[in-house]
Design a protein that fits this description.
18% of the residues lie in helices and 45% in strands. The chain has 92 residues and is an alpha+beta fold.
Length: 92
């Protein structure tokens, strides 16, 4: 899985084998380790509730998690659609 960040936009690009894992309701995780030991982890995973994006930080680990409703992921993985799109506005 590849992560692209541009402005306030996240893009996760999955390989065909990763799409197959999503269809099987498995989580996909990638981690980038920086020279100073800090880590950036990005995840796409099935959710029982709603679709959302969260950021969590614990020590040297920052995790960006994109949770997508199970039924949406299953339907998408079986379709000819090349992407899932959504807006998660920032509230202050």
């Amino acid at each position: 899985m590849k992560l692209r960040i541009r402005g306030n936009t996240l893009r996760l690009r999955l390989s065909q084998s990763e799409v197959e894992k999503i269809e099987q309701e498995k989580m996909i995780t990638e981690t980038t380790v920086f020279p100073d030991g800090e880590e950036l982890q990005y995840v796409i995973c099935p959710s029982d509730s709603s679709t959302n994006v969260t950021k969590k930080s614990e020590g040297a680990l920052t995790r960006i998690e994109v949770s997508v409703e199970r039924e949406v992921l299953k339907s998408w993985a079986k379709s000819e659609e090349v992407g899932l799109f959504g807006v998660d506005p920032i509230t202050v």
